[in-house]
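Troubleshooting: if your tokenizer reports a length mismatch, compare against these two reference records.
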Amino acid sequence: MFVYIETGVGNVLGQVQAEIMSSRDCRALDSAYMSSLTDNMFCVRHKEASEDFCRMMGGSSLVCRHGDRWWQYGLVSWGLIGCPSPAQPTVHSDVSKYLSWIEQNIRS
């Protein structure tokens, strides 16, 4: 599945096409992924990422389009040093794992 990661500083948005990886494939890439990837995270392999994109990436949303609606699946959490690439995916917090916490906190 290809997804879009939206980044931005101020009113400037960026978008990059990426692919969600299996946790097993991600852990096999590097020991950092093996030891730090939890069940509340997933990896995203980027087809391309410019230096400008890298600087705006922290905390960015990962969204997928289903029909005419966009759904948020994750937030950029961490990655290895340098820009993301097919060999160095970014790690995202899985929003679905936090839905009950989100719902409890937006009500109050």
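Reference record two:
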Amino acid sequence: MVTPALSVKRRPVLWLWVPTAVVLANYAAQVPYGLHLYGPQAIARGSVPLLITLLWFVAGLWLLIRANAVGYWLTLSFLLADFGFYLYNLIGGWVHGYGLFFHVWQFNDLILWTVFMIGYANFLAAGFLLLALIHHHGKSLTKTVG
């Protein structure tokens, strides 16, 4: 008896989950970061761009996992923007005399330090995902389970 194609279970490859979790953790970290630095009004003003970019990432990833070509390009464009943003800030800090990864050594505010460490992890995760997507272009990002 032949199993119908719809009953085959597929899961995203493992290397996709860890960096995705880091990127999502970075989004979650923006809420306490905004509240800590700017108060509740920051959440009201900053929530729209945050939600738009989060939807950009989630929609792209969801479509990518389903082997939709639009998902590849959405995810790739998000990762280019995300990685580029953090790279720009990292280089900008260095050029202005703060040094690379300046915030690693700033322990005077635990909330800010934690959010910046998550941001640095996001920078590395976005770079990894970017390279992995380029390397796996045209290949399946899921594996059959069962």
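Descriptive notes for reference record two:
- The chain is about 70% helix and 5% strand.
- The chain has a mean pLDDT of 84.
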